[in-house]
Structure formats: structure tokens, C-alpha cells
Amino acid sequence: MARILITGSSDGLGLLAAKRLIEHGHSVTLHARNDTRAKDASSAAPGAENVLIGDLSSLSAIKHLAEQINAQQPYDCIIHNAGLYRGGFNKTPEGIPALAAVNTVAPYVLTTLVNRPKRLVFLSSQMHASGATSLSDPFWQQRGEAKWNDLTAYCESKFHNVLFAKAFAKRWPDCYVNALDPGWVATKMGGASAPGDPEAAIQTYVILAEGEEEGAKVSGKYFRPWKKMGGEISECENQGLQEKLLKACAEFSG
């Protein structure tokens, strides 16, 4: 039995993956943004061990969530599943868009502050291929609300998530660290017209969370639906970009 934490698991693919892992006999901790969503998650996945609460758009709340996680027994796997796609600039207390906080800052801060698990998964997307590769303004502090674009910001954040997987895989050879592209699936984020098969996504979540299949005993890789590997753009291997992103995140988050 593995102990698994999935952020952003009150609905969507995070919740579906949690339910499947519970069915497999694992101890799963859910995460929700607030009390209401936590109650919904508990009702939807009654076999979950626990539900942690933390608003990932707030840096102080992210750090508090890290403290909550470290107060638990060590996790075998942490899946950084939480993410935003649309919603406008939605400025956080730190003055950056909520999407940048949830999709980029939160997985970085949690990874650096939480006790290291055996396996780490960063949620990405095929849309990472359209993300800016210069990393000149990863948190939109220079472009600001006047130049904000939901799609551009989302693509950039999904590129960041692959860079995280590559960078931490190099730093931590004792930990399997990978990126996961679940495909375009009909969830609240994906929309009703999405053509992807949820089962294809869930199978990949499961093999990376369990870490038992030979195909999952790798690190620094990019996984897609149906447990397939590969497909990231070549810029993801650029160690200079990886280090630039980590430095920017460290300076912003402290």
C-alpha cells in the first residue's frame, strides 16, 4: 500500500485518480481549496484517508499547506495536480495572477518545503509546446493585467511544470520525478466538448503514483495518456531554462 497525496483533487481528474487509487488499496489524501470543496471531496471519495485544505493562490497558504503535509506520515507519492486555466488576472495578495500562483509557484514551494516522497508528478499539458521559452516574466509581474491572456499564461505554466520535473529529477536521483500530460478530457477545466478518454488519463496517473510497473521506474520523463512516454518539446531539456525558472521561483517565494 502506498501513501499518496493529490493536490486539487476535489473534482475532475484528480478526484477520479484518487478514487481509482483507493480502489487499488492505497491510502490517499485529498486536497481542496476551502471547507466546502473539502466536504464535497470527502463525500465523493469516502475511502480517502484525509482531506487537506489550502488556497494555492496565496503564498502564505501554500506554506501553511506544506506544514500540514509534513505533519502527516511521509508520503510515497505527491501529485501536483491542482491547476487553473481561465478566470482572468485575479490578482493574489502577492500581486501576481492566481493562475501563476497555483500552476507554478505552488508546485515549486510545496516540492521544496515538503518532506521528499519517493515519487513526484507534475501535471503538464500538450499545450506546454506553446509556452514562452525565455522565462523573462514567469509571474507576469512586468506584463501585468493590461497584457494578461489566459491561454498564454496557461501554456507558459505547463511548460514550467515540465521544467520542474526535469530539474528536480536531476537534483534528486533517489526520487522518481516525472511530468504528466493527461490529455484534453471533458472535465470542468477541459470543457464538455473535449475528445480525450478519462480512462486513458487515469491509467497514467495510477502507474506514476504506484511506481510498480517497469515503465514508471524512470525519472525526468514526460508521460501522456495510455501510459505512453515522450512528446515534450526539446526546450524542456535546456538546463539553463530549468535553472532560470528555479531561481525565479526561489527569489519570489523566499
UniProtKB/TrEMBL annotation:
Q: Keyword Transferase: yes or no?
A: no
Gene Ontology MF terms: oxidoreductase activity
Checking Pfam families in the record gives: adh_short
Keyword line: Oxidoreductase
Q: Which Gene3D superfamilies match?
A: NAD(P)-binding Rossmann-like Domain
Record-stated family: Belongs to the short-chain dehydrogenases/reductases (SDR) family.
User: Which PANTHER family has this protein been placed in?
Assistant: CHAIN DEHYDROGENASE, PUTATIVE (AFU_ORTHOLOGUE AFUA_4G00440)-RELATED, RETINOL DEHYDROGENASE
Q: What is this protein called?
A: NAD(P)-binding protein
